[in-house]
TrEMBL record:
Domain of life: Eukaryota
Molecular function GO terms recorded: lipid binding
Family: Belongs to the BPI/LBP/Plunc superfamily. BPI/LBP family.
Organism: Callorhinus ursinus (Northern fur seal)
Protein name: BPI fold-containing family B member 6-like
Pfam families: LBP_BPI_CETP (PF01273), LBP_BPI_CETP_C (PF02886)
Keywords noted in UniProt: Signal
Domain Lipid-binding serum glycoprotein N-terminal: 22-232
Residues of the Lipid-binding serum glycoprotein C-terminal domain: 249-451
Transmembrane portions of the chain: none
Length: 454
């Protein structure tokens, strides 16, 4: 009984997996491009044809034909279809001419049209953790055969000779082409789980959550991204609480990448220190001069403490991790922190604190992609709360500062945030994907990139 319970528990643990922080759906658009480009880049059919006439270890010569050559290999036409739970069914349609000396002594020429079919099973490499295609069940299907063998030969003799010749030549010649093409495709996954830098603050690494799954319409790859600080500490993705999923309505055969709000939150945590700032400037954008005189217009007690106007120094510190939230068509960055204002003094003397406020405000986020990195630009949404923590000038109503602080955040602080965000965030590096062409949309709890081809 204990043994049964132990095995059941192990089974549950084996099938438990972390919630993915990013989802990738690969449609036939991208897979068709990759297989076709691999076929073109490898020139594999031409190479196989060149090898056909050479003596190869373990391959017996074909009886009745000498000086075997393969020429005039046609450009292949490739058809792919997804096989649920398995991978991709691949059919390569091509043609070629096989020449040589026949058993009758004359020059022989066989013009063949054929289909090469195989199932490309999608696996996860045990050593690297990367997706990997492996071909199974390669078959050669003859579509048509034409020959210049003499017409006075007995049809059965011709058929037997052709059947023997083609079934010995074609499988060993063409099936390795499928494997060679997959080698090219698999190479383009090689950098997928390599750590990618986020400036000098840390790295992001896309790790597969589980073996990719195949449906009738797409391959889905689930990622559990690792966000790591420069010091080596890993930033854990928070429990999403709410599920995120691909929206409906995308074109058939298309591909999408989904990035969860919790994943973007973890990435922004790398920049948290960059969000802390000391502002000494008196003149900032369209704001009035940053002096105690201006501040006294909102808090009269300031003029009593500082009859002679002094420059202001403002210190903003973010004391909670930044958080990204997403609702359809809208994304916000939530920031909690302190805002402390000081009156500057002569050189060599530390400024004097006037007051310290706790604040919570939201920034609207606009997303784009540049040079395959996710970019964010923010603008102030609203100041949600403002509370007084301490004051050297006596108690005052901090709500009177709402307008002043709101304008200050937009003019002085938002540019600091946007400057830090210019570093950009890396996207999964696979299959030579050009993310700059993607169309971006915001859905519930996630950012979706609708991937496009050149």
């Amino acid at each position: 009984m204990l043994r049964i319970l132990f095995l059941a528990l192990c089974g549950l643990l084996t099938h438990t997996r972390a919630d993915p922080g990013a989802l990738l759906r690969l449609g036939l658009d991208i897979m068709n491009r990759e297989v076709q480009s691999a076929m073109d880049e490898s020139h594999i059919l031409e190479e196989m044809a060149a090898e056909a006439g050479k003596n190869r270890p373990g391959v017996k010569p074909i009886k009745g034909i000498t000086n075997l050559r393969v020429k005039d290999v046609q450009l292949p036409s490739i058809t792919l279809n997804f096989i649920p739970g398995a991978g991709i069914f691949q059919c390569v349609s091509t043609g070629m001419t096989i020449t040589g000396k026949s058993f009758m002594g004359g020059n022989m020429e066989i013009i063949v049209a054929l289909n090469i079919t195989a199932t490309n099973r999608l696996l996860q490499d045990e050593e690297t953790g990367l997706p990997r295609f492996k071909s199974e069940g390669c078959e050669i299907i003859l579509v048509s055969v034409k020959t210049n063998l003499p017409s006075n030969m007995l049809p059965k003799v011709v058929h037997k000779f052709l059947d023997s010749t083609l079934h010995k030549v074609l499988p060993s010649l063409m099936c390795p082409a499928i494997d060679a093409v997959l080698v090219y495709v698999n190479r383009k996954w090689a950098n997928l789980n390599a750590p990618m830098p986020v400036g000098q603050m840390g790295t992001v690494k896309y790790v597969l959550t589980s073996i990719p799954t195949t449906t009738a319409s797409y391959i889905q790859v689930d990622f559990s991204p690792m966000v790591q600080q420069q010091e080596g500490n890993t930033i854990q993705l928070a429990d999403a609480g709410e599920a995120f999923e691909f929206p409906e309505g995308y074109a058939e055969r298309s591909s999408q990448l989904l990035l969860s709000a919790t994943f973007l939150t973890a990435e922004l945590a790398l920049l948290r220190k960059s969000f802390d700032v000391n502002v000494h400037d008196v003149k900032i954008g369209q704001l009035p001069p940053q002096t105690t005189k201006t501040l006294a217009g909102f808090i009269p007690k300031v003029s009593k403490a500082y009859p002679k106007s002094k420059p202001l120094v403002t210190q903003i510190r973010i004391n909670k991790p930044p958080k990204v939230t997403m609702r359809t068509g809208n994304s916000l960055l939530h920031l909690h922190g302190t805002l402390e204002m000081f009156a500057a003094r002569r050189r060599g003397k530390a400024p004097v604190s006037l007051f310290l406020l706790e604040s919570h405000f939201n920034l609207k986020i606009q997303y784009s992609v540049h040079e395959n990195r996710l970019q964010m630009v923010t603008s102030l949404d609203r100041l949600l709360s403002l509370s007084q923590e301490s004051s050297s000038i006596g108690a005052f109503n901090e709500k009177k500062l709402t307008g002043f602080i709101t304008d200050y955040l937009q003019e002085a602080y938002v540019p600091v945030i946007n400057g830090a965000l210019q570093v950009g965030f890396p996207l999964p590096d696979f299959l030579d994907m050009d993310y700059d062409l993607a169309e971006l949309g915001i859905v519930e709890n996630a950012l979706v990139l609708d991937l496009k081809l050149n």
